[in-house]
Write a structure and sequence with these properties.
By secondary structure, the chain is α+β, with helices and mostly antiparallel strands. The protein is 35% helix and 26% strand.
Length: 474
């Protein structure tokens, strides 16, 4: 414990009697001395003090831990010479330490001190003068710590500063109430808000979708600790242009107070990186591989069909997997084709050739044996597809369910269809019909990549349909 050179207990380095404090015997003197001893011994840094003559007057427990010299052994010695520094370094160390009494503010030095067992420890010291009421130096105090411990602290501080200023990924400190407490510049840009305006706001005000998953992850980290691997989380941000969907690869660490006897959660450190483009690229590549594999399998399966009409449905069934909910194949009626070949303008008439079951899922079935035209109105997407000899997309739009149902039934489609894609069937320079893919409300609308795939399927269906015509002498 800390001790004075005379009494064996910690004393105050006062301006009146720097060498002999605590001799007045006034009430409370012992209490003040005990309080000072407790304060000094509770410090995380090592501390010693010298009087104006350079004699050690204070020595706390942390100084004893670092150098091994007890307070009883240290207090009363003149400087560090002969015990805490090498003889060759004693003069320089003493002069640099004592110079703090005549300097303004604190001075920082690094010394190699000698431990009690003969080892050497590199320490970083902060020294400052202790002045009396008259302003004259009455001594000095010297706080020191091992250099590697100081460097570790500086590195931690530097890391924190770098993360919140220059990091190329988002860093957010979430408090125990699941609200942002600190946000770095990258995270603020990703969230589309200012660094200060986001503080203390519920996450639900920042995210339109995905907030439940994020809050569940944060709650888990607070209670169980950091997960073993990053998690990819899809969220939707609220922006002036509307909702923007992003994928963030997120890592979480639980923050606990180092000052508490037991770990007390202070919150969660959330680090994330936007991987939307990479994730979408992976999804698109995976989708292309799947569709190419489906086309390959469909080609092999169709090659084993003796009846080319069966090959038509085989191609349709393979294309439907993961792509659409319903599919229809309508062929151009022979009378319509003849009118077109004569160069005369005539109404397009389509006859249903194959369709997927309208109720439960199942393989496509050949229909239309009677050859009756489908009651398509003028301007129907399938009719437009034939007339243009190109693909056509159609959507019910953002309407109530009943209006969407009426939209589908008016076009002779299953009542749950809200998105449609029509691809023309052409072979040997002739338009043979149209294939229509339909999606329900649970799926996204057809995009350009979907159109390309539908057209690839249509080429194979058209080739099989051409064989059907050839087999029947058409």
């Amino acid at each position: 414990m800390s001790a004075s050179r005379r009494s064996g207990t910690t004393d105050e380095l006062g301006p009146d009697e720097p060498g002999e404090p605590g001799r007045s015997g006034e009430p409370g003197e012992s209490g003040g001395s005990d309080l000072l001893a407790a304060l000094l011994d509770g410090m995380d840094a090592a501390l010693c003090a010298f009087d104006a003559d350079g004699v050690v007057t204070h020595w706390n427990r942390e100084a004893e831990r670092i150098l091994g010299w007890t307070a009883a052994e240290a207090v009363g010695r003149h400087g560090f010479a002969g015990w805490a520094v090498r003889s060759a370094d004693a003069g320089e160390v003493q002069s640099r330490l004592m110079s703090a009494m005549h300097a303004a503010g604190r001075q920082v030095h690094e010394f190699a001190l000698v431990t009690k067992d003969g080892g050497r420890v590199l320490v970083r010291t902060q020294s400052a003068a202790v002045r009396g009421p008259d302003g004259k130096p009455a001594g000095l105090y010297c706080a020191f710590s091992e250099v590697h411990a100081q460097i570790d602290l500086e590195r931690s501080i530097a890391l924190s500063e770098a993360l919140f200023e220059d990091a190329a990924w988002g860093v957010v400190l979430i408090d125990a109430d699941l609200r942002p407490a600190v946000v770095n510049a990258h995270a603020a840009r990703a969230l589309g808000v200012g660094r200060t305006s986001v503080l203390g706001r519920p996450l639900g005000e920042l995210l339109a979708q995905g907030v439940e998953d994020l809050e569940a992850a944060l709650t888990h980290v607070l209670s169980e600790g950091a997960p073993p691997a990053p998690a990819e989380m899809w969220v939707s941000l609220r922006t002036p242009e509307g909702e923007r969907r992003r994928c963030w690869r997120s890592g979480f660490v639980r923050l606990a107070s180092p000052l508490a006897e037991e770990p007390v959660p202070l919150g969660v450190g959330w680090l994330f990186q936007d991987v939307t483009e990479a994730k979408q690229g992976d999804q698109e590549a995976s989708l292309l591989r799947f569709r190419a594999n489906q086309l390959h399998r469909a080609g092999h399966a169709a090659a084993e069909c003796e009846d080319p009409a069966e090959a038509v449905t085989v191609h349709l069934d393979f294309a439907l997997a993961g792509f659409a909910d319903h599919a229809l194949i309508d062929r151009v009626a022979p009378s319509s084709r003849a009118a077109g070949e004569d160069g005369q303008e005539g109404a397009v008439r389509l006859v249903r050739l194959a369709a997927t079951p309208a109720g439960a899922p199942g393989p496509s079935m050949l229909t239309g044996a009677a050859g009756l035209p489908v009651r398509y109105a003028a301007g129907h997407p399938a009719v437009q597809c034939v007339e243009r000899a190109g693909s056509v997309r159609a959507d019910a739009g953002s309407v109530p369910a009943e209006l969407a149902r009426q939209w589908a039934l008016a076009r002779q489609w299953p009542d749950d269809a809200v998105h449609a894609l029509c691809a023309v069937l052409r072979s040997r320079g002739r338009t043979l019909g149209v294939v229509t893919f339909l999606r329900g409300c649970g799926r996204a609308r057809f995009e350009r990549s979907d159109t390309a795939y539908a057209e690839d399927v249509a080429v194979r269906i058209a080739a099989a349909l051409d064989l059907v015509d050839a087999a029947h002498g058409a």
